[in-house]
Design goal:
Strand content: 15-25%
CATH class of the largest domain: Alpha Beta
Order of helices and strands: EHHEHEHEEEEEEEHHHEEHEEH
Shape: globular
Structural class: alpha/beta
CATH architecture of the largest domain: 3-Layer(aba) Sandwich
Strand order of the largest sheet: 2-10-9-8-5-3-4
Distance between the termini: 25 Å
CATH topology of the largest domain: Aspartate Aminotransferase, domain 2
Helix content: 25-40%
Number of strands: 14
Number of domains: 2
Radius of gyration: 21 Å
Largest sheet: 7 strands, mixed
Length: 355
């Protein structure tokens, strides 16, 4: 039976990424050594790094004056690195969920933090719209896609101060204007590569403005100057990221992926809205294209466990919702084929007929 991987992260990767990385683990580029055991200083791996950075910049149309960094750890380390490097006196944060809350908490260690708005009172089921960004803030931080609650910012915001975005779960899923951001970061384990890797896109001119001393490993300037090679980088995840970047380019780049992602999301949301058993949890205008959250309608709540088991019996993997929301979550990242969405829709229709 075919498995359909809806895990929220680590999550589905393109088949070509998995196959090419598996081959390189056995023999990288025909050199007789595994990608796991070659030197990160070798010319062979330097070529991997250079191509990955170049493709990253090409796919996102990153303008001149920005560095692309590949760093160990994940987005959670960036919750501290961002304020360490950018927060001198005050930062502003938009609180739209668990990860935004964690980022805000870390920033408070480095200076004053203003929570400009929050949707916590509604269990983060919408993105706040009416708020004022302090003009004297060093930066304004947003989380563009909220994996747990299924909400997403669908446009690039205009900010009067430098804009910082955690794009862990929707990077490469839609066209963005990088020039509107001072820094974009994220964990790679949703739309790019295996866990253990973080990406950072940072405007070089924004760095070096804080008065505090920054530990070497936490200084973006060091990693930019050293081409993400100050210390041993996560070699295998970076190689896997390169395979995913190649796959995205072959598919037609970000505009093609955005079109496919909108079609996939519409297919599932339409069924959620049509099916008498289910309802979506996020405000319609803020529904995520990447993490589609839904629950049983109130009169069918007792069927939740039964549907979970039924879906699993049909090959649906990882659709259980986060404990803070309950219900179900289908993560429909770039590598998720439309056929898998249709398979889930068919399961939902079949279950409806049974009840």
């Amino acid at each position: 039976m075919k498995k359909h991987n809806f895990n929220a992260g680590p999550s589905i990767l393109p088949q070509s990424t998995i196959e090419n990385t598996a081959k390189a683990i056995l023999d990288f580029d025909g050199i007789g050594l595994s990608i796991m055991e070659i030197s990160h200083r070798s010319k062979e791996f330097q070529a991997v790094m250079d191509e990955a950075v170049a493709l990253f910049k090409e796919l996102l149309s990153i303008p001149e004056g920005y560095s692309v960094l590949f760093l160990g750890s994940g987005a959670s380390m960036q919750f501290a690195m961002v304020p360490f490097n950018l927060l001198e006196k005050k930062a502003a944060y938009l609180n739209t969920g668990t990860w935004a809350s964690k980022a805000l908490k870390e920033a408070k260690l480095f200076g004053e933090v203003v929570e400009v708005a929050s949707s916590k009172e509604a269990n983060f089921n919408y993105i706040p719209k009416q708020y004022t960004i302090p003009a004297d803030a060093d930066y304004f931080h947003i989380t563009t896609n909220n994996t747990i609650f299924g909400t997403e910012l669908h446009t690039d915001l205009d900010s009067p101060v430098p804009l910082v975005a955690d794009m862990s779960s929707d990077i490469f899923s839609r066209v963005i204007d990088v020039s509107k951001y001072t820094l974009i970061y994220g964990g790679a384990q949703k739309n790019l590569a295996p866990a253990g890797l973080a990406f950072v896109i940072v405007k070089d001119a924004a760095l070096g403005k804080v008065s505090r001393p920054i530990p070497t490993m936490l200084d973006y300037r060091v990693h930019a100057k050293e081409g993400s090679m100050f210390n041993t980088p996560p070699v295998v995840p970076i190689y896997a990221a390169l395979q995913t970047l190649k796959w995205m380019k072959e598919l037609g780049g970000i505009p093609a992926l955005e079109k496919i992602n909108k079609e996939k999301a519409a297919l599932l949301y339409n069924e959620i809205d049509r099916n008498k058993l289910f309802k979506g949890t996020a405000a319609v205008e803020d529904r995520s294209l990447m993490n589609i959250c839904f629950v049983m309608n109130n009169e069918y709540k007792e069927l939740e466990d039964e549907f979970g088991k039924f879906a699993a019996s049909k090959g649906m993997i990882g659709i259980k919702g986060h404990r803070s929301v309950g219900g179900f979550r289908a993560s429909t990242y770039n590598a998720m084929p439309k056929e898998s969405i249709q398979a889930l829709v068919d399961v939902m229709k079949e279950f409806e007929k049974m009840h």
